[in-house]
Amino acid sequence: MVRLFVLGNKETGLHFSPFAWRTIIALSYKEIAYDLEILNLSEVGPKIMKMTDGKWKLIPVVQFDDGKIFYESFDIAVELEKRYPTPQLFPNGLTNAKFYEAYFIAHLIPVFKRVIPNMLPAFNEEDRVIFRESREASFKKTLEEFVGDIGSLKSAADLCFDPLRAALKHGAYLEGDHCKSLV
Ligand SMILES: N[C@@H](CCC(=O)N[C@@H](CS)C(=O)NCC(=O)O)C(=O)O
Q: Which branch of life, at top level (predicted)?
């Protein structure tokens, strides 16, 4: 069975990585059965480095039945498309898909990052400390300063969703022609 490694809280069984959700949605869309392995934040780096011979340290990671390991959510999706061609994840081809990927990374992720600190209570106690220390070092701000005020967060979100809203005035879907319930 396909194994999917995600970030969460082993004690509560909650997992909460937006990048891992991309893989979960792709697997569910293609109806591929998988075993979910939740890693606490403290475990992610060491475990993934070991699995990838030091090449990668983030989740999601997928291990297929043949033992092959894939990481980076977009590359995992491309590999899933190769191994399980239907239903298609990229009905308009990889060029379009890569455009959306680049758009989301450049515009949506910076906004989304400001929401992530709200997930702090979901981590276990040790991970909360690791999360705060690592993110504050990387943002060079306290988490609270990084999140900022809700008004500026809303304006930033509106700005990045405006192009999508404009496109969706002309049709119901950006890709494909239907929506599939995954729950
Ligand atoms: N570009 C990567 C990003 C993956 C990523 O940022 N993963 C985060 C969770 S959302 C992670 O593994 N964090 C662990 C850590 O910071 O130690 C992808 O698309 O898979």
A: Eukaryota
87: left (phi over 0), alpha (psi -120 to 50) or beta: beta
Ligand 1 pocket, 23 CB below 6 A?
Answer: no
Global pTM reads 0.93
Contact between residue 69 and residue 52 where contact means Cβ atoms under 8 Å apart: yes
pLDDT in tens, 61-93: 999 999 999 999 999 999 999 999 999 999 999
Closest CA to 60 of 94, 32, 21: 21
Return d(Cα 12, Cα 152) in angstroms, integer.
Answer: 33
Residue 107 pLDDT level (bands cut at 50, 70, 90): very high
Question: Across residues 161-166, what is the average pLDDT?
Answer: 94
Hey, which of 43, 47, 51, 58 would you mutate to test ligand 1's pocket, going by the most ligand atoms within 8 Å of its Cβ?
58
Nearest-atom index, ligand 1, CA of 74: 19
Question: Residue 48: CB within 6 Å of ligand 1?
Answer: no
Give the three-class secondary structure for 17.
coil
